[in-house]
Amino acid sequence: AERKNLADADYINAMAAGEKALAELKYDLARAQFTRAYELRTERKEPGERLQEVTAWQTIERGDAFRREGNVTQARLEYQKVADICPRLRGVAAQRTLELAQAQTQTFKLEDLEAQVDRQVKAGQSGEANRLVKEALLKNPQHAGLKSMREALERLDACEKIFGGGMSVVRKGSSSAQSV
Questions:
Q1: What predicted TM-score, i.e. pTM, was given to this entire model?
Q2: What are 1-31's pLDDT values in tens digits?
Q3: How far, in Å, CA of 179 to CA of 160, rounded?
């Protein structure tokens, strides 16, 4: 009887430690604790369900990482796996997928932005061009083309402050200078 009570206490402690680790997003520790609880009480379904939940949260985090990197396809694939792993988290994965789709529809075409920026610069409004690029970067902060455009506009602004207007810039892919 005492041995059963100790095993019950160990099970309860392992489950509690697993829940705490999961709440703190310490997935490896949560997995270890839930595995321990499962080994102590193989007839109980809760440890197995919690292990599935840990796996699902790790999958969501991988999807989020791919999303931050701009790898939309891989992010979507990770989110789709979640429903099979842990049906309870299907809603979380569906929300992430919806956010991903909304972000894609808000994604601008770089060519359109380049044309707008070009018009602003030619009109002597590099500050407005810089604002457009910064606004686009808020929507897509990892976009290398936008970062490059922002850096070029910041250099142009600095040159204009030093030398005044009338700066000449050689456009990429062009052999002639254009006055701005």
A1: 0.58
A2: 666 777 789 999 999 999 999 999 999 999 9
A3: 12
